[in-house]
Amino acid sequence: MALTEITDSNYTDEITGGMVLVDCWAEWCGPCRMVAPVLEELSKELGEKVSIKKLNVDDNQKTAQMLGIQSIPTLLLYKDGKLVDKVIGALPKTQIKNFIDRHT
Fold first, then answer.
1. What pLDDT, on a 0 to 100 scale, did the predictor assign at position 2?
2. Residue 76, φ and ψ in degrees, nearest 5
């Protein structure tokens, strides 16, 4: 199951409604590539609990700049359209799951 790609044009619409985890990443980022399969697994495991989406910061610089993304990977957690938490760096699956679980 591929995670939803979000863009500058649909970012605001994609973060509304329930809990949404946004993975800010880039093709050239090694740690981002390490986190990607973990997020795929969590997407399958957490199902309705959280929607996991990806924002390529190179292709969507306007949104990355608006969000103040300076390091990747950065995971942003939204609840009903409001940013509730963020974490920077490649974390193991258990830590990402705990990060999400703190807000459910």
1. 64
2. -110, 130
CATH number, residue 61: 3.40.30.10
Q: Which domain holds residue 85?
A: 4-101
Active site residue 32: yes
List Cβ neighbours of 38 (8 Å cut-off, separation of 6 or more). Answer: 92, 93, 96
Residues 103, 50: Cα–Cα separation, whole Å: 10
Cβ atoms of residues 28 and 78 within 8 Å: no
pLDDT in tens, 47-84: 889 999 999 999 999 999 999 999 999 999 999 999 99
The total number of structural domains that make up the chain: 1
Residue 24 is among the residues annotated as catalytic for this protein:
no
| 60 contact partners, CB below 8 Å, separation of at least 6 | 6, 7, 8, 11
Of 6, 15, 22, 32, which is the active-site residue?
32
Catalytic residue among 29, 39, 55, 77: 29
pTM: 0.94
